[in-house]
Structure formats: C-alpha cells, structure tokens
C-alpha cells in the first residue's frame, strides 16, 4: 500500500506542483479527471507566482508544460494504476512495514523520473530569467517560509503534535473513512511516537531554496548554455534525493521514515474490514480515472 505524506520535508516543489491537482482531487469524493485535465493551467499559475513570467516567456512556458503533461499521460498513468492495484492487494493481505517503505521508495523514484524529464524545460526557464524575476523568487521563498513558521513553529510541542496528528488523520479518513474514538487514541499514540522537529524541516527547506537560487544566479551571471544548465539541474535534482541518505541528520530522517511507516501500518492493522473495503473502493475509483485519462493521450 502507498505510504501517506504525513509532514514530509520540503523538496521537489516543481514535481509537487504537477501532482498537486491530483492530491486536491483526492481530498474530494470525485473530480480527479477534471483536476488532471486542468493540471497544466494549475502548474502554469504556480510557476507564474514564483517568477512573474513576462510576455515573451508565457507562450513557450505554456507549451512546455503541455508537452510535459502529454508525456506524463502517455507514460506514467498506467504505472500509477499498478501502484494502486498493489495497494489493494496489500490491504487484502498482510502488509508489512518493509512493504510500506518499499512503496515510499518507489514513489520517490517516480518523482525523480518526472523531474529529470522536465530538466530541459527547466533549463530553458532558468536561462530566460531576469534579475527582477530571481528577486521575485527570493521574496516568494521568504513568504512561504514565514507561513511555515507561523503554522509549524508556533505553539508548544503538544500543539505541534496535535497539528501533525490532525493532518495525518485527514489523510487516513480519506482512505478509510471515519475512525472510532478507541482507534483514534491508538493512532494518536503512534503519531506522537514519531520524532518531531519542524525546525529541521524548515532548515532543509531553506537549504534547497538557496541551492535553487544559487543555480539560477550562476546561469544568469555566466550565461551558461542549455546543456550546461541541464547538467546543473540534473545534479541538483539528484542531490535533493540523495541528501537524506548522506546528511549529517541521517539518523533523524531514518527514524522519522521508519516511525511514520509504523504509524501507517498501525492504521492499516486497526482498520476494520469495512474500513479496508472503503479504501479498496476508493483506490478502484482512482484506477478507473487513471485508465480513462491514459486513453485520452494524444
């Protein structure tokens, strides 16, 4: 079964913008196909909020985004179907913590594939940026970080634990439906057992932002070729995925991943047959939507 994103670190924002429409649709009862079909527009306005695209950039950026979605529809959606089918089988069997960690690794790999595919288009955008647009990016990063501090670094540890638990339960309820008070008590204990240090996630977030800014400034100042820019972007993408494996904070990240997998496993083990049936039915709805979307590929 797929892992749940229960307070993951900031990373790979471009990819998450591509997929945000799916996540938004999944928090509703229906609408995934409509959301996906409007995803190119969502991504365009997301990018525009960061760099304030000028008149010369707008048309070719829209075209690049459209081509990325065409590729994604043709090559990735069938794989998503297989992931969901695996999840259905795991719910009907004896899923283990190792299974969940493997599922999470597969999601990360697919995220990296999407980003690397977009690298040439990201290079074109990076090479076209003007100084004032890079300033806009810095302001947007700062604003986002200020919002993060207000949401995740305010209050005491108990309040932060409660907020994290609440966000996790929203996702669990999406999959399984409502939980009893007895189930919620067990899940709250499992949630609180996870390490919690939002300052670390903010620091990692800011490190990645600075890497992006350093890259675009280098591209602008040195007027790098497209090939050279793609090489830099590919390196940045790979570093963002390898960072947690080679960080001085690896012990914390490993403990967080393992305990989160255990948290998700606890929810699955607590789920009643009716709750598991709810999750399997929801997955089937997404499978049907992804299959339908894949047949619409140009």
- H/E element string? HHHHHHHHHHHHH
Secondary structure tally, helices: 13
Average residue-wise pLDDT = 87
What is the percentage of strand-forming residues? under 5%
Please give the number of β-strands: 0
N- and C-termini, Cα separation: 31 Å
Largest sheet: none
Rg, Å, rounded: 20 Å
Write the layout of secondary structure elements.
Layout: H1 13-26, H2 32-37, H3 39-51, H4 55-75, H5 77-92, H6 97-128, H7 131-152, H8 157-176, H9 181-192, H10 198-222, H11 226-246, H12 250-270, H13 273-295
Task: For this entry, give a set of tags.
single chain; 298 residues; mainly alpha; globular; disordered N terminus
């Amino acid at each position: 079964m797929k892992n749940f994103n229960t307070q993951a670190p900031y990373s790979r924002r471009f990819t998450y913008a591509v997929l945000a429409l799916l996540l938004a649709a999944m928090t509703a009862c229906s609408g995934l196909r409509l959301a996906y079909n409007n995803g190119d527009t969502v991504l365009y306005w997301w990018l525009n909020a960061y760099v304030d695209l000028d008149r010369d950039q707008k048309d070719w950026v829209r075209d690049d985004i459209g081509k990325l979605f065409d590729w994604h529809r043709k090559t990735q959606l069938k794989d998503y179907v297989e992931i969901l089918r695996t999840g259905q089988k795991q719910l009907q069997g004896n899923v283990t913590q190792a299974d969940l960690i493997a599922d999470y690794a597969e999601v990360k790999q697919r995220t990296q594939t999407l980003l690397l595919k977009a690298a040439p288009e990201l290079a074109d955008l990076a090479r076209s940026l003007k100084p004032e647009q890079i300033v806009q990016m810095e302001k947007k990063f700062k604003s986002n970080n200020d919002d993060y501090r207000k949401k995740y670094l305010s209050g005491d540890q108990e309040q932060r634990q409660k907020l994290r638990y609440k966000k996790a339960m929203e996702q669990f309820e999406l999959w399984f439906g409502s939980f009893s008070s007895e189930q919620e008590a067990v899940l709250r204990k499992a949630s609180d057992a996870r390490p919690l240090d939002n300052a670390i996630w903010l620091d990692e977030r800011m490190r990645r932002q600075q890497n992006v800014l350093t890259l675009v400034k280098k591209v602008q100042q040195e007027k790098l070729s497209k090939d050279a820019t793609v090489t830099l972007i590919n390196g940045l993408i790979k570093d963002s995925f390898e960072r947690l494996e080679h960080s001085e904070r690896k012990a914390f990240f490993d403990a967080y991943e393992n305990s989160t997998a255990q948290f998700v496993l606890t929810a699955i083990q607590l789920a009643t047959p009716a709750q598991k049936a709810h999750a399997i039915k929801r997955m089937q709805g997404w499978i049907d939507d992804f299959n339908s979307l894949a047949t619409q590929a140009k």
